[in-house]
Amino acid sequence: MNIKNISVIGLGTLGTQIAVQAACYGCNVRGYDQDPEIFLKKVEELKFLMLAMGKDPTVPKEDWGKAAATVKLTKDLAEALADADLVIEAVPEVLELKRKVFAEMDTLAPKAALLATNSSSIPISRIEDATKRPEKCLNMHFYQPALGFTLCDIMGGTKTSPEVIEGARQWVRSLDLTPLKVKKEILGFCFNSVWRAVKKQVLYMACNGFVDYQDIDRAWRVFTGMPYGPFTMMDMVGLDVVYDIEMSYYNESKDPKDLPPQAFKDMIDRKELGAKTGKGFYTYPNPDWAKPDFLKG
Ligand SMILES: NC(=O)c1ccc[n+]([C@@H]2O[C@H](COP(=O)([O-])OP(=O)(O)OC[C@H]3O[C@@H](n4cnc5c(N)ncnc54)[C@H](O)[C@@H]3O)[C@@H](O)[C@H]2O)c1
């Protein structure tokens, strides 16, 4: 399967990183977002985050910046999709929106193109029937490759062909990322399911006043050797995005235990959305987690 022409629909935090990662590895990338300014803003924001997090992308930072400049931006969705071998949708985590965008992608992209969603929680089986090519639809869930999280969950729906899964797997490997193949549909995919369990528990503990979020981050770093803990990571992801993902799990289960804590919702309502708004659990640009004595407690 020759996957060379990539279209990314939605160029926010993740769409921008997927587009640039693909461009870094020689793909012809076209990008479309309803906000024509967002890609360049995100590229600058990511440069700042790379410095703050001290984690590198898979190529030297200068090459990453140069690759970003090769992404062809267009205000016309049809033009964005015209030559695609693979389309990756990265719009907000709202099922109806994703279904609408998939229907558009299906109409405008070449018949042979694969259609992937970068959703963090919605299985492709909930989206595939918005298209006439369910055998070419799949989940490809990336984890902020520009910030050194070089993984991608891959999962098929009810009709995805094995060749499509294998083609996507090989393509992900060609971008210097590690594919994590899901053998049987599960909410949250492969490692993202594990990360979700961590998020849910730590949000419950900190937002209900049992412990301080900084102590969880300290413990996580000491215990795992990672340079940041779950609350730092949520600040990087965007708390609105985390909230939407948690709501999507709740909408699936309707179990009150899956509802995000009220104190967390209050943060979203106050627009404390993490690094991108200057305040989330930590305050930016000089968050406490980046200070030399943070681990001392
Ligand atoms: N943030 C993360 O760390 C992360 C990680 C993995 C997966 N994801 C998933 O990726 C998807 C996007 O998340 P994000 O963090 O990049 O969100 P984001 O809010 O940063 O970006 C979403 C972008 O989609 C654009 N958009 C909205 N409607 C559109 C439409 N109809 N057509 C084109 N563009 C449209 C918005 O303008 C925005 O720029 C979500 O499904 C999320 O679950 C996010």
Approximate strand percentage: 5-15%
Instruction: State the CATH topology of the largest domain.
Output: Rossmann fold
What is the number of E strands?
A: 8
Please give the CATH architecture of the largest domain: 3-Layer(aba) Sandwich
Order of helices and strands: EHEHHEHEHEEEHEHHHHH
User: Main β-sheet, in a few words?
Assistant: 8 strands, mixed
CATH superfamily of the largest domain: NAD(P)-binding Rossmann-like Domain
Mean of residue pLDDT values: 95
Distance between the termini: 52 Å
Instruction: Please give the order of strands in the largest beta sheet.
Output: 3-2-1-4-5-6-7-8
The helicity comes to: 40-55%
Query: Could you say which overall geometry the principal axes of the C-alpha atoms support?
Result: globular
Briefly, what CATH class of the largest domain? Answer: Alpha Beta
**What's the domain count?**
2
Question: How does this structure look, described?
Answer:
The chain has 297 residues and is an alpha/beta fold. It folds into 2 domains: 5-181, Rossmann fold, CATH 3.40.50; 192-296, N-(1-d-carboxylethyl)-l-norvaline Dehydrogenase, domain 2 (Orthogonal Bundle), CATH 1.10.1040.10. Helices cover 44% and strands 12% of the residues. It is built from 11 helices and 8 strands. The protein has helices at residues 13-24, 38-53, 61-70, 77-81, 95-108, 162-174, 191-207, 213-224, 230-237, 239-253, 262-269, and strands at residues 5-9, 28-32, 72-73, 86-89, 114-117, 137-142, 151-156, 178-181. An 8-stranded mixed beta sheet has the order 3-2-1-4-5-6-7-8, with helices on both faces. It is globular. The mean pLDDT is 95. The chain binds nicotinamide-adenine-dinucleotide. Residues 9-15, 32-35, 38, 90-93, 101, 118-120, 141-144, 237-238, 241, 245 line the site of nicotinamide-adenine-dinucleotide. The site of nicotinamide-adenine-dinucleotide (NAD) has 28 residues, from α1, β6 and α10.
